[in-house]
Specification:
The structure is a single chain. By secondary structure, this protein is α/β, with parallel strands linked by helices. The chain is about 25% helix and about 10% strand. Strands 1-2-3-4 form a four-stranded parallel beta sheet, with no helix packed on it. It comes from Culex pipiens (House mosquito). InterPro entries: LRR_dom_sf (IPR032675).
Length: about 130
């Protein structure tokens, strides 16, 4: 059956700017493992997440922020077991630091990215907490 099969879409290093949404691409909903490293994606859309995804890697893209709706959906989606977001253009701010910590609570293997300034978002989150 399709549910037991593993479908990987490897589109690394392809100058992709947008992740397809399942509504527009029904076959996209069959993918379990999505490899998007080395592209030009700068935003993440909740509509690109679907129930079959278990692994998403998006290193070396142009991500700089995470929308609350995206993080909320990732945390709700039971099938996603790993999300890799290292080496992007992350903007250092307390909101992003909080979102990364939230993601880290779901994924045991989650490595919190560093900002473009080189600061680790976990360290930033600690300083944000003390400011409140």
């Amino acid at each position: 059956s399709l549910n037991s099969s593993s479908v990987t879409l490897d589109v690394r290093n392809n100058s992709i700017r947008v992740i397809p949404v399942v509504q527009d691409n029904p076959g996209f909903g069959l993918i379990n493992k999505l490899l998007l490293d080395g592209n030009e994606i700068d935003t993440l859309d909740v509509a690109s997440l679907h129930a079959n995804l278990s692994f998403v890697s998006m290193t070396y893209n142009k991500l700089h922020q995470l929308e609350d709706s995206f993080v909320d959906q990732v945390l709700k989606t039971k099938t996603i077991r790993e999300l890799v977001l290292l080496n992007n253009s992350w903007t250092c701010d307390c909101h992003l630091a909080k979102q990364m910590v939230r993601l880290g609570t779901k994924f045991k293997q989650f490595r919190v990215p560093t900002c473009t300034s080189g600061q680790c978002l976990i360290d930033l989150n600690r300083s944000c907490i003390t400011k409140v």
